[in-house]
Each structure stands twice: as structure tokens, then as C-alpha cells.
């Protein structure tokens, strides 16, 4: 499989391997492979999906018949659960990777599964990285899944709602795996330290080193086990301290996918933190995006939108700052542009907030959509062409600059909208001054 961690016992034949056989076979495999649970009792976490009688437990135990899409962060057990399903009584197991398999390979597996089914034998088809399958590849699975020629188990780190076609979604159970807790990761590590399949008590790992691995794992069991193995391999005396771990693993995992739900979740949290005036939370989410490789132009665009949407006239300089940051991104680029993005984030998060701008344009567009778009008053129409005057266009228009105050009584909106107020200034920030001025202007213009 694509991650190098899914070595299916007896692929294409019944998987009837004891744990001893698995240990012997995987003696030279990575620690994360050797420590893959051999039964449900060894699975850590995901108890919300593995309760008595749950669809996933019945599937693993061999009695379930529903296809499933396992959706969750890396290292939370998707491949493990697929491997356990492969041991279910009376089932054959086939595995494909969306990174290498095409429609031809999918159809070949389905043809074999159809022949097996006539002999009373069901096939479990595991597809890793299923979100990378094209629409055509996913469509090739539909009939086989619907008719239960294959029992599909798809694994994906992305929200299937964004990456799996609707017909396949409707034919499958979508089960969301959760990031492992720190206690879960610690349990996985301790088992690996003591278990015969793992380090078999050949190394002494300090509590500080264990705590550090738990912190940098980011809820990813595979990453935790990889860090433990790398640290152990670097040990010269059989001891693993925190300094050795720090030297073996450079930084913590950042779970983020620019095309998936993490992309949307983190940018949503970023904007909501700015809207909520939490400078520190906003900087945290900005750092997560930058560290994970998000396109800085995307961040800059969101800041410019936010400057008008949630701040507007409460601080008109917010849009200037956001626009300037976007220019820095364009002209300078990363890593230096992170400073301008951080400055803009701090400015916007700490600025007074107002939703009056978006409310104003929203109300105006709603009226237009409802048909409230009457004729332009004649005195405001274009008069720069022959015959305009005969039509009454531009006749009687009053030029505001002829008035000493630069504003005078005159009808500007269509007749149907005279007296309608779209912009409703708040008393936040600069709008404390803008509000009274707008009220005064309305009174003058409307002759009140």
C-alpha cells in the first residue's frame, strides 16, 4: 500500500495467521507495522465506533454486511481496522491503493469477486486513499457495492463529503475516527516498549522522553511509534532520554490538508478567532496554516474579505492593512511575508468590529433580488448624448458642489426605495463618528 504499512496477511487467500506467525513474518518490518493490533481487544481509541452491536464491530467480527468509509486523521487506526476485517470468517481480502490502481484494476477485482460470490464466498475490497480515486474510478465501484458483490472498506484522511461521489456515499456507512488522546498514544507506546513484537524491553525509555513523544505525535499513533523506533535505533546504551528523542525527531506533526476538511476547519477557526477579537488564537491558526504549507495568497484573500465583512467602517484602516499584507505576499513571498500576515492578523483581531457593511450590501441586494429596482429618477440619468434633454434626462439635477456644504436635498434612489436605510452604523470604533454624520446627511438629502 502507499504508506508501506499495510502488508496484508495472505492477500487473495484466507488470512488464517496466528500472532506468532505475524511476529515472525514482520520481524524486520517497521515498529508501526509490527505493533498493528491483531484483534479488537488491542485497538486503542475509537470506542465510540466499537461498542457492542455497532456496525463496525459487527463488520470486524464477520457479521456486518455494510460497506464503510473510514474517515479520520493519519495514525488513528483506519488501516488497522481494515486489516482486522480481512480476518473475518469466510471472507477473501483484496487491497488497492488509489495512488496506483485504475479502473482496469478495480474491474478486475470485481470480476474475481463476482465469481467467488457464486461459490458463497464474499470479498472485502480495501481501498486506501479512496479520496484520490477519480469520479470515473469511483463510479466503477457503484454497482458492485450496491449489489454487495464486494464489501467496500475505504480509508481516507479527507472528509468524504468533499471527495467521494454522492452515489457511493449513499451506499456506504461513513464512520469518523477521532484523533487519539495523549493517554491513548502513551498506551500504544508502552505496549510497543514491552511487547515481544516491539522493543521487547530491550530499551529503557525515560518518562520525560515518553511525554515528549506523546506531545509531538499530534494524536498519530504511527508517528509516535516511528519516533520511538528512530530514537531507540539511535541509542548506544539501550536508554532513550528526551535529548535523544529531540535529536531524532525534528518537529511535531501538523495535521492539515489543503484540499480537505482541515483546510476549511482551520481557516474557519482563524476567521472566527479574528471576529471574536482573540489575537492569540488567530495567531495560532495562522501559524498552523503557514507551517502546513497553506498558500499565503489564500490567507491574504481571507484577511481582505474579513476586513470589510467584520470590521468595515469601525476601522477603515483594517482593509488597508490587509491589502498591504497581500501586496507583501505577492512582492516578497515567504518566509518574510509571514510577518505582514501576522501584523494584519493582529490588527484585524484587535480592531473594533462591525458587521454593518455586509449587512448593508446584503439588504440592498435582497431588495434588488425581490424586484425592488425601479426606474432611475430622470434628473440622475445620463445626459451626455444627443436627444437626452428631449427625453427629460439629466434635467433638474442639482450639483452638490454648488452648495457651500457640499450636500443638498435631492432624490437619489428609485421612487420605491425613498427613505430606505441600508447602512446601520454601530457605535463601535470609527462608526461612533460615522453614525451621527450619516444620520445628518440623510436628513439633509431627504429635506427633513
Number of strands: 7
**Biggest sheet layout:** 5 strands, parallel
Number of domains: 4
What percentage of the residues does DSSP assign to strands (E)?
5-15%
Reading side by side through the largest sheet, how are the strands ordered?
Answer: 2-3-4-1-5
Q: Would you write up a description of this structure?
A:
The chain is α/β, with parallel strands linked by helices and 448 residues long. The protein folds into 4 domains: 19-176, 3-Layer(aba) Sandwich (Rossmann fold), CATH 3.40.50.300; 182-248, Orthogonal Bundle (Helicase, Ruva Protein, domain 3); 261-350, Zinc Finger, Delta Prime, domain 3; 373-445, post-AAA+ oligomerization domain-like (Orthogonal Bundle). The chain has helices at 19-25, 31-34, 55-60, 78-85, 103-118, 135-139, 142-146, 160-163, 166-170, 182-194, 207-217, 221-234, 242-248, 261-275, 279-291, 296-311, 317-331, 337-350, 356-369, 431-445; strands at residues 67-71, 91-97, 122-128, 150-156, 172-176, 204-205, 239-240. Strands 2-3-4-1-5 form a 5-stranded parallel β-sheet. It has a two-stranded parallel ribbon with strand order 6-7. Helix 10 packs across helix 12 (221-234), helix 11 (207-217) crosses helix 12 (221-234) and helix 14 runs antiparallel to helix 15. It is elongated and about 95 Å long. The protein starts with 18 loop residues before the first helix and ends with a helix.
Task: List key phrases describing it.
448 residues; alpha/beta; Helicase, Ruva Protein, domain 3; Zinc Finger, Delta Prime, domain 3; 4 domains; 5-stranded parallel sheet; two-stranded parallel ribbon; disordered N terminus
Amino acid at each position: 500500500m502507499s504508506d508501506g504499512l499495510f502488508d496484508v496477511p495472505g492477500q487473495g487467500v484466507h488470512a488464517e495467521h496466528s500472532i506468532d506467525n505475524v511476529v515472525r513474518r514482520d520481524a524486520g518490518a517497521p515498529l508501526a507495522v509490527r505493533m498493528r493490533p491483531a484483534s479488537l481487544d488491542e485497538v486503542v481509541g475509537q470506542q465510540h465506533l466499537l461498542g457492542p452491536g455497532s456496525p463496525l464491530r459487527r463488520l470486524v467480527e464477520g457479521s456486518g454486511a455494510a460497506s464503510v468509509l473510514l474517515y479520520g486523521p493519519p495514525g488513528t487506526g483506519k488501516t488497522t481496522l481494515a486489516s482486522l476485517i480481512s480476518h473475518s470468517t469466510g471472507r477473501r481480502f483484496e487491497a488497492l491503493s488509489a495512488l496506483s490502481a485504475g479502473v482496469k484494476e478495480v474491474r478486475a477485482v470485481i470480476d474475481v469477486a463476482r465469481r467467488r460470490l457464486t461459490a458463497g464466498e464474499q470479498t472485502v475490497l480495501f481501498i486506501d486513499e479512496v479520496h484520490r480515486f477519480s469520479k470515473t474510478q469511483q463510479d466503477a465501484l457503484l454497482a458492485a457495492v450496491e449489489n454487495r458483490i464486494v464489501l467496500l472498506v475505504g480509508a481516507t484522511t479527507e472528509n468524504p463529503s468533499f471527495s467521494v461521489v454522492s452515489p457511493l456515499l449513499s451506499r456506504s456507512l461513513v464512520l469518523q475516527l477521532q484523533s487519539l488522546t495523549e493517554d491513548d498514544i502513551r498506551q500504544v507506546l508502552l505496549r510497543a516498549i514491552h511487547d515481544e513484537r516491539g522493543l521487547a524491553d530491550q530499551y529503557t525509555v525515560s518518562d520525560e522522553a515518553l511525554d515528549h513523544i506523546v506531545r509531538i505525535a499530534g494524536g498519530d499513533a504511527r508517528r509516535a511509534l516511528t519516533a520511538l523506533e528512530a530514537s531507540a535505533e539511535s541509542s548506544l546504551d539501550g536508554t532513550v532520554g528526551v535529548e535523544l528523542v529531540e535529536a531524532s525527531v525534528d518537529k511535531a506533526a501538523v495535521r492539515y490538508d489543503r484540499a480537505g476538511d482541515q483546510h476549511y476547519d482551520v481557516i474557519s477557526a482563524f476567521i472566527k478567532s479574528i471576529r471574536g477579537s482573540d489575537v492569540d488564537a488567530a495567531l495560532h491558526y495562522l501559524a498552523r496554516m503557514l507551517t502546513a504549507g497553506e498558500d499565503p495568497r489564500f490567507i491574504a484573500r481571507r484577511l481582505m474579505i474579513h476586513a470589510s465583512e467584520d470590521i468595515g467602517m469601525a476601522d477603515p484602516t483594517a482593509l488597508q492593512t490587509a491589502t498591504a499584507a497581500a501586496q507583501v505576499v505577492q512582492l516578497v513571498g515567504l518566509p518574510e511575508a509571514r510577518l505582514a500576515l501576522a501584523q494584519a492578523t493582529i490588527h484585524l483581531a484587535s480592531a473594533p468590529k462591525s458587521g454593518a457593511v455586509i449587512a448593508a450590501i446584503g439588504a440592498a441586494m435582497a431588495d434588488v433580488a425581490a424586484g425592488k429596482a425601479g426606474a432611475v429618477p430622470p434628473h440622475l440619468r445620463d445626459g451626455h448624448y444627443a436627444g437626452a434633454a428631449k427625453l427629460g434626462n439629466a434635467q433638474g439635477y442639482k450639483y452638490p458642489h454648488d452648495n457651500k456644504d457640499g450636500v443638498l436635498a435631492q432624490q437619489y434612489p428609485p421612487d420605491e426605495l425613498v427613505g430606505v436605510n441600508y447602512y446601520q452604523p454601530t457605535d463601535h470604533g470609527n462608526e461612533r463618528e460615522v453614525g451621527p454624520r450619516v444620520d445628518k446627511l440623510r436628513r439633509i438629502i431627504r429635506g427633513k
